[in-house]
Specification:
Elements (H helix, E strand, L loop, with lengths): L1 H6 L2 H27 L14 H13 L3 H5 L6 H10 L4 H32 L1 H40 L1
Amino acid sequence: MLERIHSLPYPWVFLFFWCLAMMRSHTMYWIGRGITAGTAHSRWASVLHSPVYARAQAWSARWGVLAVPMSFLTIGLQSVIQISTGVTHMPLHRYAAATTVGAIAWAAVYTTIGMAVLTAWLTGPVGRIVCLLMVAAPGLTVVVRRSRVVRDHQGDERGKRSNHG
């Protein structure tokens, strides 16, 4: 399979990933439209009350239509931001233009970095270890930063209490 993918010209692989991104993003948009069009009592309604959706709404409120192409470079917010654009009835022509730009960025990342990671994963145990480390490093960075923020916040609270007590 990998040989077949590597035998394809770059533009065809890029076009494949771009089409995937466009199909996925528009599916999410129409799910959002469906939520507001009478499916609020379905399993999708719970999405509207999740903390991730609240973050996505804040992103959309802050960045407007720019949140859509930027969402293609995020992990965990992309689908929710796209659903929120459907829920808020962003005009389809604006959404289509924004997703076109975002899908280009997404396809470029997956055609280059994504294919390199896939090749590394499929070539053997060393490639798998490298891939796992590449995934674990950002996760570990987030955990360490969040624990520092919590620790600093707790220290600030203790300082405030000792100053007032």
